[in-house]
Design brief:
The structure is a homodimer.
Chain A: H1 25-40, H2 47-58, H3 65-75, H4 81-94, E1 97-100, E2 105-108, H5 110-115, E3 119-121, E4 127-129, E5 133-137, E6 143-146, H6 149-161, E7 165-176, H7 178-187
Chain B binds a DNA duplex (30 and 30 nucleotides) through α4.
DNA sequence: CATTTGACGATACAATATAACATATCATCG
DNA sequence: CGATGATATGTTATATTGTATCGTCAAATG
């Protein structure tokens, strides 16, 4: 919940080269990939959007828009709700993040960042944003993104059977993750 | 969106026998089934809850909590947000309705009402509320509930594979329903 | 260079949901 | 019957999430 613990890199270099906040190297690397991804889509990952995505990458958990706003304000004075929602809308449209509807919260999409596959085509010529599947642990609040072909196939099949032309699917599976279930078992 | 059109039954009998609003016969019948269902679960479908469920059954579309509140006020002076949310929570817990997360709106669960199967068991001894799958048409806003065994099986399988103990799943499929797709085709 | 377009600042507001506490209703038991 | 506890509802206020709108600025485009 609170601020993250001390980080293992040199904080003095954080604001060295640019006017924008510097995240740890691993995050900066992912952000660079995101920048490339955007260029290829003819879009721009502006400094503001980069910061918002960076904050999400740093968080172990899904972040609400107002969580993000609070954090963003430490980097970007004067940020207001529309500031955050615009960045989120942009990132959502490109598939760089997902919204977890049940939590009204957002997570970065590592699949897009790591495999650079933003857009998918399911049917004849129909393009459709990759929409993942999420395991939501109610103990530790962590969210794991799956990309299970079986689930997707079942959903596409059921939609077709109903004559429904699907463009997006929201799959949110709630329960207890392996780690928390293990811990509970150990306690008993 | 607006108030429903004139109804084909005798409005004079609406408040005859009881102090609670009377819905058309088909709805009253479903409400009676809901009452029975609750008794079997040792719960009570109070007049307030019955009215809320009735309003939802009368609506062709998902209703937001504040839509319900507005309607409820015509039947139940002094209703406030908590009035509605409490009724919704009750109905959700019993599986008599579902929440469509993407719409922040609610629909009655006809599966529960028509088949009286509220609780399911997926794994060894673990009970779990029936959680349906929803086709959401972005043209006409209608929502169709599926209960596709293939989707459920795929989700259960993927959860197990990840060591995740699922208790509830939210499946919301957005797109264009057969009727609206047909209409669009006709226009072209 | 003028124009257009997209991004951002800033204020206000709308829509959704809950906290907290008071009151009422009802069943049960002594 | 009257006390007691549990459940349901009334009431007010507030928290949380999300948009509308309008103005400004800066980069891209012709």
């Amino acid at each position: 919940m609170g601020t993250p613990p001390a980080l293992a890199y040199d904080a003095a270099r954080m604001t060295a080269a640019t006017d924008t906040h510097r995240f740890p190297p691993r995050t900066e690397h992912l952000l660079d990939r995101a920048t490339d991804f955007c260029s290829r889509e003819n879009m721009k990952l502006t400094s503001l959007r980069r910061q918002v995505l960076g904050l999400m990458l740093e968080s172990a958990r899904p972040m609400g828009a107002y969580d993000l706003l609070e954090q963003l304000r430490t980097l970007h004075e004067g940020a207001a709700p529309p500031t955050v929602y615009r960045a989120l809308d942009f990132l959502l449209e490109l598939g760089l993040i997902h919204k977890i509807e049940r939590l009204s919260a957002f997570v970065p999409c590592l699949h897009t960042l790591e495999h650079d596959h933003g857009l998918h085509a399911h049917e004849e010529g129909e393009e459709c944003l990759h929409s993942g599947q999420f395991l939501i642990c109610r103990e530790c609040s962590q969210v794991t993104e799956l990309e299970d072909a079986g689930i997707l196939a079942a959903i596409v099949a059921a939609s077709r059977k109903a004559g429904f032309r699907m463009t997006h699917s929201t799959i949110e599976i709630e329960g207890v993750c392996a780690r928390c279930a293990g811990a509970a078992h150990a306690r008993a």
